[in-house]
Amino acid sequence: MANLTEDMAIERAIERDPRAFRYLLNKYKTFAFSIAIKITKNKEDAEEVVQDSFCKAFKAIRNFNRSGKFSTWLYKIVYNTALTRIRNKKIVMDSLEAYPDSNRDFDIPDNYVGSFEKLVQADQVALLKRALKVLTESENLAVTLYYACENTIAEIETITGWNPSTIKIRLFRARQKLYIELSKQLNIEINELL
Hints:
Layout: H1 6-14, H2 18-40, H3 43-59, H4 70-97, H5 122-132, H6 137-148, H7 153-160, H8 164-193
């Protein structure tokens, strides 16, 4: 399957070819996970969201409209599945808070380095990671979808349901915040070196 294209994989996936499923899974799992982790803030939840999303996508692949990109269709499934997961988890957490004497610990990692951040050098990753903390959740997701997943504004609108002007504003604000924060971080590092 070395010469398999995405269109061929989709056709074969409709015919239930496991190799086609594997091709699509391998191609999109990293960015699907990046989207899920931005929303769920929890590695285990994000993994389950990705798994559920691929299962939903493969079950409904016959319904995929070829007028758009497969990645946009899949990322919308991931986005909606992640939102449903955190809504359901909030309901469970609210019901657990009704029993304050129960000693339940949830292991939620404070920091997660997404796959696109691993591509840069360790110093740059640390700087970027600190800078990304200044973004709101929606700005962070917009940056991930636009820069890491390389979605267009129209595709982000399809995935999230946000209108194009909202997306552009979130990206603009995120870029401004990142510029300011990265400038501060670099100045601090330069001063420490001198």
